[in-house]
Structure formats: C-alpha cells, structure tokens
Specification:
By secondary structure, this protein is of the alpha/beta class. Helix content is about 40%, strand content about 15%. A hairpin with a 4-residue loop joins strand 1 and strand 2. It starts with a helix and ends with a helix.
Amino acid sequence: MAYRIIGLIFLSMISDILSQCYNGHLYGAKIEKKKLNFTQIAGQVGYAVQEYDVTTQDSYILKLFHIPGDKTKPVLLMHGAIDSADTFIIRGNTSLAVTLARAGYDVWIGNVRGNRYARRHVYLDPDGDLEFWDFSFHEYGIYDLPAIIDFILEQTGEKNLSAIGHSQGNTNFLVLGATRPEYNEKVNLLIALSPMCFLNNVKNVVSLMIRLSPMLEFIYTLAGREEFLGDDTALGHLFRSFCGCKSSYGGCAYGIFFPIAGSDPNEIESDFFPTIVAHYPAGTSKKNAVHISQNAIHTNFTYYDYGLRNIDVYNARTPPVYDLSKVTMKVALFAGENDQISTLKDVKLLRSRLPNVVEYKIVDHKRFNHIDAVWGRNVHKYLFPDILKVLETYR
C-alpha cells in the first residue's frame, strides 16, 4: 500500500509539472519556442553555414554542416551519444563551433546515422524498415567517419584534418583507427573531450542504468522498436513534455542530467536548460545503446556481442576486442574530476592503451563533468583556450 501511495504521489507530481509546462508558465517561466536548427542558430550569431549530404558506403545519408574558414585548417567536430551537431552551436557566440570559426578555422560539424539530421537512406525507410536501425558505434566508425573525412578532404584539398570529439564522438574515432588504420594518416590530431571508451568505473546512476540495460533491450525488442529517443518516438515526446520548460529544471537537471553526467548547476543554469532539452536527445538506435552497455558489462572495448550468434558473426564465442594499438593518430585527452561517465580512472586506462597520446589534461574546473564541454556556460573561458592552444601546437 505504501508503494502504491508513493506511486500515486509521483504520478500526480509529473501530471502537475506537465500541465504547467503545457500552460506555458510556472513562476513566470515560458515554454521554449520550437527549436531552431543548426544553420538558423549560426545565422543568429552572424555565420553563414553550408549544408552537404554525405552518403556512406552502406547508403546512409548524413547531414554535414560547414562554417567556411581557412581551408588549410580544417577541423571536424563530432558529437556524442544520442546527440547531434546542434550540441556544438546551441551556446551561440560562446559555443565551440563559433569559437573555432572566429579563430579562423575551417569548421565542419558532422552527424552520425540515426540522429535528427541523418534519418535518411538511399533505399531504407527509418519509419518502416527495422533494418535501418541495425547499427551501433561500430558502424559510426567504419562507415560514417570515413565518408565524412573523405568528403572534407576532397573539398579542402588537404591531406588530413584535425578533429574534436565529445563523448562517444571519440569512440567513433577509436573504432576508425583500430579497424581502418589507413585513416590514422588522415586525422592529424584528435582532441578527445570526455572520451568514452572504457566504462569500467562508471558511477551511481550510470552503473544502475547499465545493469538495467538487458531489461530495456527486452522491452524494446518485444515492442518491435529499434529507434531510441528520437524526436518522434513516444519516449522522446514524453521526455520533452516533462523536461522542456524552465519549471522542470529541478526535477530533470537534478533528477536526470546531473546524476548521470555530474552536477554543475553554475554551468548548466535553469534559464538555458530548456534550450538543451529542445535539442537533446537527438536519437540513435537501440543497438547502439546496448553496445555501450555491453562494453561496461565486459569491462573492455569490444565489438557488439551477439550472444549465441557470435560463432556465426566472429567465428568465436566472444566478440573481438578493438586493438587500440593500431590507433596511431595523435590524441589529446581532456578529462574532468566530476565526470560520472568518462571517469578519470577509465580515461587513464585509455591513455595507457593508446600509442600516441600527445596531451593529457584534467580540466582546471573542479566540477567539470561529462556535459560541460559542450553545454557549459563558461567553458569558452577555462577550456576553449586550451583547445585552441593544442590545435596550434600540433598543426
């Protein structure tokens, strides 16, 4: 009976917040207007954006954004899990994309298959063909990145580019370097912000989520759903309905984002929070979410585990391990003491496995966590100068 009463109270609280969000105000807060896309946000701060469609070897169509600059200084930005290119521009004038453009770089911002800018395929329908969603970060690395990199190099006439990844954006580069080693020569430098590879020491809520992932996979499979947290999915709509207004900051920032990523309310403030929710999450596949959790469960950086099908796929009972010794591109690692996902222990383990780490920096901000690197209010002051310095050092 006690659990039932608590449940009713919880449902009542959710209903009350949703009602006030839909009414458009609570303590004077208004619902965030319909989100602008990447090009529109850049235009608001004075930058014209070129948009390109890049088709991968296996026929996915990815949107690539370009803020033109010095063609001899191309930089590719790659977003993290369930995210999109928007993450690098939503802070406007103080965002990483604008900071790099202002410094004269030729800035390219990519998207991986399955997010809001890459829900297209030459012949598969993401709404009708489950096969469309049969991918994880493995395909991001072996198909999406090569297509994007080759396109940029063709456009600029350069032999290589620099790259900046956030979270799983770095995982993709590690897969690329390990499985298609010829691309190590095409990436002059990877600046890895909150790099996600090993998940052996994840904390608190993240650890619980990983333990519950098999149940999530079962529910999604039973329901015949393969898209995870996309804009038009039921879970995506529910999330934005609950967290999309300023009044939900306490419940969503302190109840969801901070326990998962690390708490830093001075960097992720209540006024900006609805903007984050308007753009994140941007969608991925169930398989990608499962692959991430498998790496944590296996305490290693492995290919996707198909269980009993491993014999057919890999000719082995267990999935192979990505060989990080083949990732010979220069890598600069940026980590945070307060990161609940890319913990210092796991980043140090990654550092020990990579053969060409040229910089390792613990960000000089005690509360710096997994999301501050892209959404933090003051990262343009305490993080971006170091990024620019590393870029110039290893040109």
